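To illustrate the input format used throughout this study, we show a single complete record. The first block contains the structure-token representation of the backbone; no residue identities are included at this stage. The design step must infer an amino acid for every position from geometry alone.
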């Protein structure tokens, strides 16, 4: 269910586009829902579709195309490890496996304490820096050796807030 407050935020985003192109605000609306709810549900996709006058499947296609939209609850720290071919050739898969072992979870899972969710991702656009990963869809980490992965995880565990 999309609240009136959320719809007001949608309206501010839609206003940035010509009236006949309001569907262009779909990514902004998805980001708003995720910010408010922590993830994007089928119901919220339907609400966005109705608000923007587009098919629900079109909203779902955007949600599922981009890693930044969570389709289920995630941990405080979402770790996306690039496993695309260039990163695979430079130990991207090994980095993912190291994190699985360190965190005690498989790719796609969240630690029992709710702190970490581990995901693989397609190209992050930093092939020369691989293995690379993205923390919370915002912070790019490059050249992630096992030692650097351990430092990152241990640092996040100790972070306040």
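Output of the design step:
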């Amino acid at each position: 269910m999309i609240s009136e407050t959320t719809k007001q935020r949608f309206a501010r985003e839609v206003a940035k586009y010509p009236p006949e192109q309001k569907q262009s605000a779909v990514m902004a609306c998805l980001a708003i829902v995720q910010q408010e709810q922590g993830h994007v549900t089928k119901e919220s996709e339907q609400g966005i579709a109705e608000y923007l006058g587009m098919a629900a499947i079109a909203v779902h296609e955007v949600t599922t195309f981009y890693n930044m939209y969570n389709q289920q609850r995630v941990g405080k720290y979402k770790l996306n490890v690039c496993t695309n071919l260039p990163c695979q050739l430079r130990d991207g898969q090994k980095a993912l496996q190291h994190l699985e072992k360190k965190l005690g979870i498989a790719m796609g899972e969240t630690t029992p304490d709710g702190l970490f969710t581990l995901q693989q991702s397609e190209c992050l656009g930093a092939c020369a820096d691989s293995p690379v990963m993205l923390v919370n869809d915002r912070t790019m980490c490059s050249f992630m050796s096992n030692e650097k992965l351990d430092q990152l995880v241990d640092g996040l565990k100790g972070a306040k807030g």
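Structural context for interpreting the output: The chain has a mean pLDDT of 93. Residues 146-158 form the longest helix (13 residues).
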